[in-house]
Design a protein that fits this description.
Elements lengths: L1 H13 L13 E3 L4 H13 L6 H9 L1 H12 L10 H4 L13 E6 L7 H7 L3 E7 L2 H8 L9 E5 L9 H5 L3 E7 L7 H14 E12 L4 H4 L6 E3 L2 E3 L5 E3 L3 H10 L3 E14 L4 E13 L5
Parallel strand pairs: 2-3, 2-5, 3-4, 5-6
Antiparallel strand pairs: 1-10, 6-11, 7-8, 8-9, 10-11
Length: about 300
């Protein structure tokens, strides 16, 4: 499998467009996908046929919240960087003169506030309902210097089984929902119900902003045998899980929940690690879905 990974990386270097490692002025560059790369990637993934035993699959499912709780106990607020770009890639989240007095945002899988807090800082009309199923993440969020309980309701909630916070119904729903790198952590059989629950919380005309891992991301290609739970679904070394989506799968999940596609695309980037002389090839999905004004 190491040889196959090397072939994939060589194919990337040969692909049309700039290679980030070859341009000393670049740390990040857009990445181009070729038919050759897709064939190699599929061949690599098809080699890994053995699934994790049923006992361990059940254990990872039962202990999903616990494993993410341990993740935040180990890493505190230091693992993820603040996402100061969200109002740029999702312009609806930026302040606008014609906004209502209060704009409500539901964030699912809020972690320690790396998305919500920068948005609250730049948009004075925004109020956030933030949920995560890791107790430690919510605890750390509450202790962030910029946390303001008058504008941000943060609570422990497992989107796969718990009702959403009551404030959402009290406000007649939310204007927007943010669903970033969270759906991929759920078991595929529970994804549709989770998407439906979020869609139901959004007011007519409101939007869901989505980003998550895309098919053939280099992290997927580098999983060693013994980590595969199902097709495109894996367990990491720390026992957290990740699914790698296609745009078609994302479209189908949200369409079944009654949402209309506004944007849905792959983002492919090369990241240079010049100290090691290597390139990371990342793939994720960026999408926006809107709830119809009339159902």
């Amino acid at each position: 499998m190491a040889d196959m990974n090397k072939k994939i990386e060589e194919a990337v270097v040969k692909a049309a467009g700039v290679s980030v490692i070859q341009d000393e002025g670049l740390l990040v560059a857009e990445d181009e996908w070729t038919e050759e790369r897709e064939v190699l990637a599929k061949e690599l993934l098809e080699q890994d046929k053995k699934l994790v035993p049923t006992f361990w699959q059940s254990k990872y499912e039962k202990e999903a919240a616990k494993n993410w709780d341990l993740f935040y106990k180990r890493n505190s607020t230091n693992f993820y960087k603040d996402r100061h770009y969200l109002h740029v890639v999702f312009p609806d989240l930026a302040p606008h003169d014609d906004d209502p007095d209060t704009v409500w945002l539901l964030e699912v899988g809020c972690g320690v506030g790396n998305a919500a807090l920068p948005l609250l800082e730049i948009n004075p009309r925004l109020k956030v309902v933030a949920i995560d199923f890791a107790d430690k993440a919510v605890e750390l969020f509450h202790h962030q210097p910029l946390f303001d309980p008058t504008r941000c309701h943060v609570s422990v909630c497992d989107i796969t089984k718990d009702p959403l916070p009551a404030v959402i119904d009290q406000e007649g729903g939310v204007n927007y929902a943010l669903f970033m790198f969270c759906l991929s952590a759920l078991h595929p059989e529970k994804m549709q119900d989770a998407v439906q629950k979020i869609a139901d919380s959004v007011k007519p005309g409101g939007k869901i902003f989505f980003r998550d891992y895309g098919r053939f991301d280099q992290a997927q290609l580098r999983f060693k045998p013994g980590h595969k739970l199902a097709d495109n679904f894996y367990v990491r070394q720390d026992n957290t899980r990740a699914y790698y989506f296609t745009t078609d799968e994302v479209r189908d999940l949200f369409a079944k929940a009654g949402m209309v596609e506004c944007e849905n695309e792959y983002i492919r980037r090369q990241y240079a690690n010049r100290s090691q002389g290597v390139v990371r090839f990342r793939v994720w999905i960026h999408a926006v879905f809107q709830k119809p004004l009339t159902e």
